[in-house]
Structures are given as C-alpha cells and as structure tokens.
Write a structure and sequence with these properties.
Layout (H helix, E strand, L loop, with lengths): L4 H10 L23 H10 L3 E7 L3 E11 L5 E10 L1 H18 L3 E2 L5 E10 L1 H18 L3 E12 L1 H17 L3 E5 L3 H7 L14 H11 L14
Parallel strand pairs: 5-6, 6-7
Antiparallel strand pairs: 1-2, 2-3, 4-5
Helix pairs in contact: 4-5
Length: about 230
C-alpha cells in the first residue's frame, strides 16, 4: 500500500475511528479488517472495476471514491488504485439544501382570508414529498378550521403520474370530505398535460394565477376588494 501526502492528511483525521495510531500502520493490512461485509468489496474488485461511488464513513465523513486496476508496464494487474476525495462539506451542503427543499415543499401559508391557506408546490414532487404534504395539509386543516385550500402548481418543475394522482385525487377528495373547497391555481399548459389523465372533479375551480384564485375565494366569502385612493400628501 502507498498513499500520497494529501491521502495521509485525510487518513490522520480518521485515526480516532480506526484501530491504528498512524496511517503508515495501514500498510500490509487486509481491507477485510475495515469492512463489515468484506465479500462485498471483494466482489467489486473482481467484477465491477472501474468503480465509482460516494461513501459515508463512521456516520460523519463522506468520500467520493474511484477504484481501478493498477497495471504494470506489461499490462499485468499488480494491484488496485484508489482515488479518494473528501466531500464531507459538500455532502452536508447537499443535505441542508435537501432539507430546505423538503420544508418548502410542505409549506402551508396563511392568506388574507383567515379560513383559507395557500400550498405552493415547488420543484419535483415525488411520492415521499407528496405523502408528507398530504399528511401535513390534512392535519393543519383539521386543527385550524380551514375552509379553502389553494393549491399552487406554478413552482413545479416535474410531477410524475403517481404524485399527481396522490395530490389531485387523494388529497382533493380527502379535503372535500372534510367540507373544504380546493382551488387550483398556477394552471399552465404544462400543468394541464400532467393532470389531463386524472379522474378529477370538473367542478374544481381552476385559475392561471394566485390572484384570480384568491379573488374567487374572497367573492365566495361575500367580501369585496376595494382599491383605496392614494393620499397624494403621503
């Protein structure tokens, strides 16, 4: 085994988690000593090279690895070459971004009408995010005497068939059974293509913008929006 100075620095940061006192002690050791399932690694070396992956070490570090055969001048395999790049901070950033997107994807926003809420759909909706959003929405509506839910599709970049069915059939029907009116806003040509094959209630109010949708709710509640004249002295 041989490693360069950068690899030695990285290995030194792992010393507290390894049964060694210095990276040089790794020389001559079998990889089996450092894996719970050595047969998996041996299978990679025998049949899956070159191999690329991002691995997690000790639930703390993340590394991007590339493993390939090391050949001598005659083209004979004499060992293996491991290129190891520390991507711990990058992975942390990705996880934070993923967490942020998840929080945004299940956001419930109050509106100017006390009994109406806005749910913006953002990014790509998959089954996991759809289920979480449905659960949060039903719980919120049950606890807050909600009468109207405006579902905004304008921020979506992708919506697969199963997620569309969950959001637009399961959630809409569940809310309807609770006596809540669902209003679809942000409806574009692309959104229509996503929804056209679903068994939707044709009576669901749909609008191209949130403004149109909230105006509809305002009218249903018997309110009217009045433009206040601007005081020229202010």
């Amino acid at each position: 085994m041989w490693f360069n100075e950068r690899a030695e620095m990285l290995l030194k940061s792992l010393i507290p988690y390894l049964p060694i006192n210095h990276p040089s002690e790794l020389i001559g050791k079998s990889i089996d000593e450092f894996h719970q399932n050595p047969s998996h690694q041996r299978n990679i070396l025998l049949y899956q090279l070159p191999y690329e992956s991002t691995i997690t070490l000790f639930d703390r570090f993340a590394a991007s690895i590339v493993i390939s055969e090391y050949l001598n001048e005659s083209g004979e395999k004499t060992g293996y070459l491991l290129v190891w790049r520390d991507v711990t901070e990058k992975q942390k950033e990705l996880q934070e971004n993923k967490k942020l997107v998840s929080e945004l994807s299940s956001a419930i926003i109050p509106t100017i009408i006390d009994n109406a809420i806005l749910i913006p759909l953002i990014g790509t909706m998959n089954e996991e995010r759809s289920e979480k959003l449905i659960d949060n929405t039903l719980n919120y509506c049950a606890a807050n005497n909600t009468d109207y839910v405006l579902l905004d599709f304008s921020g979506l970049s992708e919506l697969n068939a199963s997620s569309a069915q969950a959001l637009c059939e399961t959630m809409t029907k569940s809310l309807s059974l609770m006596g809540i009116l669902v209003v679809y806003v942000g409806i574009t040509k692309r959104v229509v293509q996503w929804l056209m094959n679903l068994d939707l209630d044709p009576k669901i109010p749909t609008f191209s913008t949130f403004r149109q949708g909230i105006n509809h709710v305002v009218n249903l509640e018997g309110y009217s929006l009045i433009l206040k004249e601007r005081d020229e002295n202010h």
